[in-house]
Amino acid sequence: MGHQIFLLVCTIALLASSSLVSAEVVKHSFHSPNSARKILVAENDTKKSVDGILKELDIKGSIDYGVTAISLGSRDFGGLYSEKPLAVISPAGADDVGQVIRHALQSPTLTVAARGNGHSVNGQAMAHLGLVIDMKSMADNKKIDVNVNYMYVDVGGGALWGDVLKHCVSEYGLAPKSWTDYLDLTVGGTLSNAGVSGQAFRFGPQTSSVTELEVVTGNGEKIVCSNSQNSELFFSVLGGLGQFGIITRARVLLQPAPDMVRWIRVVYSEFEDFTHDAELLITSQETFNYVEGFVFVNSDDPVTGWPSVPLNSNQSFDPTLLPKKTGPVLYYLELVLHYNNHDDPSTLNMMVEKLLGKLKYLEHFRFETNLTYMDFLLRVDHVEEAARGSGIWATPHPWLNMFISKKDIDAFNRIVLQNILKSGVNGPILTYPLLRSKWDNRSSVVLPQDEIFYLVALLRFTHTHPKESEIKQMVAQNQEVVQTCIKNGFDFKLYFPHYESTVEWKRHFGDQWERFVDRKRQFDPKAILAPGQKIFTRNHIL
Ligand SMILES: Cc1cc2nc3c(=O)[nH]c(=O)nc-3n(C[C@H](O)[C@H](O)[C@H](O)COP(=O)(O)OP(=O)(O)OC[C@H]3O[C@@H](n4cnc5c(N)ncnc54)[C@H](O)[C@@H]3O)c2cc1C
Ligand SMILES: *[C@@H]1O[C@H](CO)[C@@H](O)[C@H](O)[C@H]1NC(C)=O
Ligand SMILES: *[C@@H]1O[C@H](CO)[C@@H](O)[C@H](O)[C@H]1NC(C)=O
Ligand SMILES: *[C@@H]1O[C@H](CO)[C@@H](O)[C@H](O)[C@H]1NC(C)=O
Ligand SMILES: *[C@@H]1O[C@H](CO)[C@@H](O)[C@H](O)[C@H]1NC(C)=O
């Protein structure tokens, strides 16, 4: 059971641990002879000027050239790519970030990557021979300022969402509206992508409940922006893949936090019933507070099969009760209803029955439990220790995330879920619908066309000591899935996109490509920022 829950939640905090704090800070000297030599050989000419530039850097925070820091800056959760930076910087605040960028501008080659918690999977937070800014260690993150009258919180760009949650709930009984499934992610990191979970059908992604940002642009300027003030920068940065500025502060809207949640899973054998019910729930006025969907394998596999569905050890999944014609995969909706301790239990139970009463899930396959709101949002953390122990989060994670238009989701199910992925991905497969109208199209995120589109997430894990062939197979299967979508003309976009060529990036952005490039010209004309996204190269914006 523990193993199963672990995979369900898949947490990674290894890279986020205390290594940087304990690392020796040696200003302006290379600690790793190997990396130093490589840099000298490769970049002899520029090295001299870079060294000079870094010597002039006078920040309140620290610059770390040590092996531990460099190693941290060159790793991410994906474990598929590794690029060594020249140094890792722990800023005290936005002014330090500005200094770093302005100094990088003086060199012809230096790039700067903000690193949130390094939970990217394809090296997006890395900077080859550049400067990595460790946002999570930024001193300003400790300030989490709640404004009770206007119901918002001001937080540092490197703050972890889990810390924001704990502070807002325990001190004020308030909480942000829209979450990710896992909260050891930074505010700036998710806002640079979107940030989606089971609340997004209602409140939009996390980018939709931000009203103000403080950003240091690629020009080295610190600018406060919002819908009404410097709005072009504001919308550029939201979902901007770190290309336009570094988020040093965000103002996030709050709502009253409930005490408790009823957490429910209901199982389907037919994809049409599953999507019908999911779409009904996300488009109804009266509905659950959280709606997600999962795909699981029709087998006894503890990680990907029947045992992965029940919510506590009192419940069991009895496969003999499944319909005879059940296919290779099954589906479940995961639903949550908020409530407070003083609410009348019978009223709550009636509400649950009323909402579930509209659904066509399989009889005998309803699982539920009650949990505090915090425990639910931190559900992934519960197994963090166990996960570390088993060692499989230091191994690579070739994850694939995408959004697919409703019009193509049935075909996707037939061709991809029931066929290519019929044995699972050795980790959770998520799929649930979202509403395009809850996303602001002025942000930099690109979405498929339909008003209803599905998130599909393949959260792959390897075995403890994976062979290279195992990882290659996973990567190849991801490519097969993407190629299948292209070949069949599916309307889809990658979430956390990863492409290496300009042609592919152009296709990704489609008719928004020009806008994206214009924004780059305006806010990061030297293409200093987030080189690990591989959209632009230094000094070269096309
Ligand atoms: C276990 C796990 C569960 C996850 N669950 C979800 C989920 O439920 N929903 C979801 O939407 N996502 C989820 N994610 C993905 C997550 O949103 C991304 O990894 C995202 O990149 C945030 O991670 P991070 O803070 O570590 O950012 P990083 O990976 O460090 O950075 C991501 C990108 O943003 C840039 N960046 C980082 N900080 C800033 C900043 N302050 N300003 C500007 N640019 C910045 C970086 O340069 C990089 O290009 C999950 C990831 C993991 C590993
Ligand atoms: C760097 O260049 C100088 C000449 O400009 C040369 O003397 C030196 O050997 C070079 N160093 C390396 C490590 O290549
Ligand atoms: C399991 O069931 C017993 C009695 O049926 C109950 O007391 C206990 O709280 C349940 N455990 C969980 C985790 O729900
Ligand atoms: C959850 O709480 C409700 C009361 O709000 C109670 O009726 C129900 O039995 C509880 N369910 C579980 C699984 O503990
Ligand atoms: C955003 O949506 C509005 C309303 O649907 C539309 O008029 C506008 O052209 C869209 N803007 C972009 C940039 O797509």
From TrEMBL:
Its cofactor is FAD. Keywords: FAD, Flavoprotein, Oxidoreductase, Signal. InterPro entries: Cytok_DH_C_sf (IPR016170), Cytokinin_DH_FAD/cytokin-bd (IPR015345), FAD-bd_PCMH (IPR016166), FAD-bd_PCMH-like_sf (IPR036318), FAD-bd_PCMH_sub1 (IPR016167), FAD-bd_PCMH_sub2 (IPR016169), FAD-linked_Oxase-like_C (IPR016164), FAD-linked_Oxidoreductases_BP (IPR050432). Pfam families: Cytokin-bind, FAD_binding_4. GO terms for molecular function: cytokinin dehydrogenase activity; FAD binding; oxidoreductase activity. It comes from the Eukaryota. Residues 81-257 form the FAD-binding PCMH-type domain. GO terms for biological process: cytokinin metabolic process. It is an enzyme of class 1 (oxidoreductase). Its EC number is 1.5.99.12. Coiled coil: none annotated. Residues 1-23 form the signal peptide. It catalyses: N(6)-dimethylallyladenine + A + H2O = 3-methyl-2-butenal + adenine + AH2. Belongs to the oxygen-dependent FAD-linked oxidoreductase family. This is cytokinin dehydrogenase. It comes from Solanum tuberosum. The lineage of its organism: Eukaryota, Viridiplantae, Streptophyta, Embryophyta, Tracheophyta.
